[in-house]
Write a structure and sequence with these properties.
single chain, 314 residues, alpha/beta, Elongation Factor Tu (Ef-tu), domain 3, Rossmann fold, Ubiquitin-like (UB roll), 3 domains, 6-stranded antiparallel beta sheet, 5-stranded parallel beta sheet, 8 helices, 18 strands, binds FE2/S2 (inorganic) cluster, FMN
Length: 314
């Protein structure tokens, strides 16, 4: 459900990175969240974007996110950096958490660039617990790495910084991972190259938890797609989804708007309850168990294995 918030503060954090702080428009408390959660902000230009929360989860008066100005911005980060102003009221959905911190005895947190945002909230949580943990924060250069001084305060000697330009290339992940205690849970967020490098070095992939900014591989029409019908349970409206057209676009053509953000199956903004039919999942969020249960699906990328899907939509 969307809620209205005020943008109360905007500040420069590092090269290309701005921090935004929000308070509830009605002056009340904001919903609870856990490290790893993100919110979906609908900008005044109509674009919806997901940003990880990186403030203190115990502070229900304020939410903080940090936004990297993407070189190939599609209108989200460029708007935030160039046009969004303190005092604006924005609609926000969430928080939603596709990257929760599970109980464990030992953790390694790995952040690359703006991937520090969910990892910072995790570091703050772990610093308050009696567990073994350490973190690796990598970036191309120190100037573009947000929250450096805060992280030194949170993690102290547990923080290992790696700046590619100072250290002559990317970090030696094999050595870092080999130095972890058995069973260490690894949480990683950052650019695809970092995630792929960590994935390739993990001896036990079950210990790795990652959050992507982009789908690992673009979701493309396979050529063997067939048409199916979607029924909106609330109104009974029936919409045919043609091959090569997404469910969200088919619904939009019929006047049913579903909030989307990434449109790549990685953020969860368009997650919708399935009341009937068998989804064909193409997202990067649901676990194998959730896929088999077939109770929810991402309408931006997923399709249908049966002739009809009944969805929990008005
Ligand atoms: S819009 Fe992000 S998962 Fe569908």
């Amino acid at each position: 459900m969307d809620r209205l918030v005020w943008l109360t503060q905007q500040r420069w954090l590092a090269e290309g990175v701005h921090e935004l702080r929000f308070r509830a428009s009605d002056g009340g408390e904001l919903p609870e969240w856990e490290p790893g959660a993100h919110i979906t902000i609908t900008l005044p230009n109509g674009q919806a974007r997901d940003y990880s929360l990186c403030s203190d989860p115990a502070d229900r008066t304020e939410w903080t996110v940090a936004v990297l100005r993407e070189r190939d911005s599609r209108g989200g980060s460029s708007y935030v950096h160039e046009q969004l102003r303190v005092g604006e009221q924005l609609a926000v959905a969430g928080p939603r958490n596709n990257f929760p911190l599970r109980p464990a005895d030992s953790y390694l947190l790995i952040a690359g660039g703006i991937g520090i945002t969910p990892i910072k909230a995790m570091a703050e949580r772990l610093a308050a617990q009696e567990v073994e943990w350490s973190m690796l924060y990598c970036g191309r250069s120190r100037a573009g790495m947000a929250y450096l001084s805060e992280l030194h305060g949170i993690a102290g000697a547990r923080l290992r910084l790696h700046c590619d330009d100072e250290q002559g290339g990317p970090p030696d992940l094999a050595t870092i991972l080999a130095g972890c205690a058995d069973g260490t849970q690894v949480y990683c967020c950052g650019p695809e190259a970092l995630l792929a490098a960590v994935e390739s070095q993990m001896v036990d992939p079950d210990l790795l938890h990652i959050e992507r900014f982009r789908a690992a591989a673009p979701v493309e029409a396979t050529g063997d797609e067939s048409a199916f019908d979607v029924v909106c349970a609330g109104s009974g409206l029936r919409v045919t989804v043609q091959p090569g057209v997404s469910i969200v676009d088919s619904l939009a053509s019929a006047g049913v708007e579903v909030l989307t953000s990434c449109r790549e199956g990685i953020c969860g903004t368009c997650e919708t309850k399935v009341l009937g039919g068998v989804p064909q999942h193409r997202d990067s969020i649901l676990t194998d168990q959730e896929r088999s249960a077939g109770e929810t699906m991402m309408l931006c990328v997923s399709r249908c294995q049966s002739a009809e899907l009944e969805l929990d939509l008005p």
